[in-house]
Input
Amino acid sequence: MFKKSMICAPILGKDSKSVLQSAEKAIRSGADMLEFRIDALENPDADEVQQLIMDIKHPLIATNRLKSEGGFFSGSEKERISILIKAAEYADIVDIELQTPERLRGKILKASKSTIISYHDFQKTPPFEELLNVVKKEKEIGNIAKFAVMANNYKDTLTVLKVILEVQNTIGISMGEMGKYTRVVAPLFGSPITFASINKESAPGQLDIETTRNILGNLR
Output
């Protein structure tokens, strides 16, 4: 999908001002893309979200993450999806969870230019075949498959890399200290996007933008 792997910085802000400040800092630090975590806003409003995306003017993934998948959105599913549909008008990519009800997920697919279908497990890394089936299901639905799973040993991290190698256009993240290295190795295995932080991690084991860019530059 991309000529090279993109470094994407998650943007988590409680209000418009902090979102724009974080976006500016991430762009200055060299982020190729931004992931706008809509769920981090204190009172997300669809029109405000759309205006923020327009103001940022940088390649952007719109995400409104469920609490059950590590997010903060506390409203109803109907509200969550309606905000994402509005965001989809200007976002380059919309990230929607695999577990989202099919009817609501279909609305996002119809409204979006491109989609990431995502899956998270903050406790463990499922066995290879199970994870592979998740990814194949995601690829049947959207443009890019994404999974983020917790590494409890180094064998888990190899499972993640093996899945990325098996299925093209798959973002695979091995969370935690053991999985840190996969964030810079995954692009070599074909991951189209790797995530890096501005100041603090938005997921366990995330490296900062400059470190990620420097390591990738030496590996390529």
Notes: Residues 6-219 form a domain with the TIM Barrel fold (CATH 3.20.20.70).
